[in-house]
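Technical annex, item 7. During the second reporting period the consortium partners agreed on a shared format for inverse folding records so that results from different sites could be compared directly. Each record opens with the tokenized structure and is followed by the designed sequence. A conforming record, contributed by the partner at site C, is shown below for reference.
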């Protein structure tokens, strides 16, 4: 949408401005990321939406592409102090200001930032645009060409608060949120509840259920940190975007990152190079080198398949071996990936009927309650009185409502850790023999959240082989493999002054060898399965004798004695 079209639109309130922003982003077909901010001094939660994933972070450790600020509530000095203290400099950033006093902002922008600016005036009912160094001559939001755009909402309250005295509305209207959610293909449920018995206020909360948004009230108890004393209302919320539906054949591309594809390309190059070289030197008499052994194996496999009298394709054994090797490499990488995408592999929180605190504890999970709510929870759940105290974590800072989180976790398939303590007690299960945390190989900032820890619940491995993988995990096979592989692939980012060495490819080589071994095993199992089936039919008895004679001719004499 060009600037000229923007000028023709007439807007009269904040909700229309925000809907316009969402409309622009929708037309530009940019996957948006919402960062919800309440106050500059508050360690607010953030949520990013990036390629179907919900990433939670405790701090804003990135450079936003768009700043949206309601300048009717704050001064320009406050705004720029927040920008300077909380965000890294982004020369491609765009600013959308809602307000009237723009002179000081314009001067500050020209000094501090090289950026695009869009001014939204709520008084005049129109949009005024102004640029620095004529940057806004291009189309709007053209600077952000990547798959996700980071947007900061500043001082536009992402909640609804209806005070009982006079029914005064503060914050965004329900219609606005419904409009935005409709455009972004999200759902929300609005339920009026009483959230403060002392003040007698009521609020229209966004509850969970089958929704994409959940809300948690923050109550001012004595045990809370002082940093939240200046918040105007006792409510915060965050988005849980609905992941886009990905076809099954595309799922591997979504699960794997570029490091895994480097592994696949490396495997292809090695396999092709070995086969081409073995074909060239096949006539030379090699004894026990790698090429000779590979050639002998391929000859044996080809003789075995030719004896079935059913498959006469040229180099079919090589094709089958390549396919089985690739399949096993993919499975091994999925096992590696599933270590992080499905932490509850052996204890499925969503298929075992966990609907209450009793169910949650009976399944062996830890429970977090606040000290001020411990008596209330134990009265609602009498079985907690006899529950081991080491399984119940008390937290003074933030109240957490397990029923809301569990409802959202069940509908959105999110695994929920309650707080830092429960996370630290659980992640110890995922350590290698060197006490290296497997979870820390992910960016820790992606795991932090002020009210709990959310993990994406998803398992790319088919359910038919899930029991097998669970057994391998119980015996430590996957943990050993992941610890060796992750120590290399997690450090695959090479600086400009750094060169690749043997250590950088050691991890992919191990995975390649493991995939080849499993591929060979599967390959021979298929051959033996076909032979056993033929023997049961009393067919190919004579060709089977010929098979042994041909194999004896191919193998070295030392092995046939």
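Designed sequence (site C submission):
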């Amino acid at each position: 949408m060009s600037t000229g079209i923007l000028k023709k639109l007439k807007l009269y309130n904040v909700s229309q401005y925000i809907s316009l922003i969402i409309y622009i982003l929708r037309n530009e077909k940019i996957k948006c990321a919402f960062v919800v901010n309440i106050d500059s001094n508050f360690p607010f939660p953030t949520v990013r939406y990036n390629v179907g994933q919900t990433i939670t972070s405790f701090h804003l450790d990135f450079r936003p592409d768009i700043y949206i600020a309601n300048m009717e509530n704050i001064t320009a000095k406050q705004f720029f102090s927040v920008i300077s203290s909380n965000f890294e400099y982004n020369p491609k950033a765009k600013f959308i200001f809602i307000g009237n006093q723009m002179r000081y902002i314009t001067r500050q922008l020209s000094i501090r930032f090289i950026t695009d600016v869009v001014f939204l005036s709520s008084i005049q009912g129109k949009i005024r645009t102004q640029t620095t160094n004529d940057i806004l001559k291009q189309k709007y939001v053209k600077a952000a060409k990547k798959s996700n755009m980071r947007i900061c909402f500043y001082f536009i309250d992402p909640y609804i608060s209806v005070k009982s005295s006079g029914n005064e509305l503060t914050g965004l209207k329900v219609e606005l949120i419904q409009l935005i959610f409709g455009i972004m293909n999200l759902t929300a449920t609005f339920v009026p509840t009483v959230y403060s018995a002392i003040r007698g206020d009521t609020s229209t909360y966004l509850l969970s259920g089958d929704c994409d948004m959940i809300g948690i009230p923050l109550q001012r108890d004595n045990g809370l940190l002082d940093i939240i004393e200046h918040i105007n209302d006792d409510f915060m919320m965050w988005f849980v975007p609905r992941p886009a539906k990905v076809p099954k054949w595309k799922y591997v591309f979504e699960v794997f990152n570029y490091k895994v594809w480097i592994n696949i390309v490396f495997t292809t190059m090695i396999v092709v190079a070995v086969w081409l070289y073995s074909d060239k030197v096949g006539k030379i008499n090699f004894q026990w080198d790698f090429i000779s052994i590979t050639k002998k194996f391929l000859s044996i496999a080809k003789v075995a398949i030719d004896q079935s009298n059913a498959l006469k394709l040229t180099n079919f054994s090589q094709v089958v071996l390549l396919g089985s090797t690739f399949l096993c490499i993919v499975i091994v990488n999925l096992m590696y990936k599933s270590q992080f995408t499905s932490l509850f592999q052996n204890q499925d929180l969503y298929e075992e009927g966990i609907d209450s605190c009793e169910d949650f504890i009976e399944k062996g999970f830890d429970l977090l309650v606040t000290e001020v709510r411990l008596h209330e929870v134990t009265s609602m759940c009498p079985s907690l009185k006899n529950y081991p105290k080491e399984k119940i974590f008390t937290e003074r800072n933030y109240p957490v409502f397990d029923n809301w989180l569990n409802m959202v976790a069940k509908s959105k398939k999110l695994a929920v850790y309650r707080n830092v303590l429960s996370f630290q007690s659980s992640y110890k299960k995922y350590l290698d023999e060197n006490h290296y945390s497997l979870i820390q190989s992910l960016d820790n900032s992606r795991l932090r959240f002020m009210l709990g820890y959310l993990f994406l619940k998803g398992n790319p491995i088919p359910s038919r082989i899930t029991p097998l993988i669970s057994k391998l995990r119980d015996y430590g096979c996957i943990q050993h493999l992941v610890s060796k592989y992750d120590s290399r692939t997690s450090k695959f980012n090479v600086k400009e002054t750094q060169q690749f060495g043997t250590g950088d490819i050691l991890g992919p080589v191990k995975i390649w060898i493991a995939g080849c071994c499993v591929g060979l095993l599967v390959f021979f199992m298929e051959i033996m399965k076909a032979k056993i089936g033929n023997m049961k039919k009393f067919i190919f008895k004579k060709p089977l004798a010929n098979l042994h004679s041909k194999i004896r001719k191919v193998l070295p004499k030392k092995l046939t004695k």
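The chain is about 40% helix and 15% strand. The chain has four domains: 1-156, 159-241, 254-341+502-560, 351-437. All partners now use this format for quarterly exchanges.
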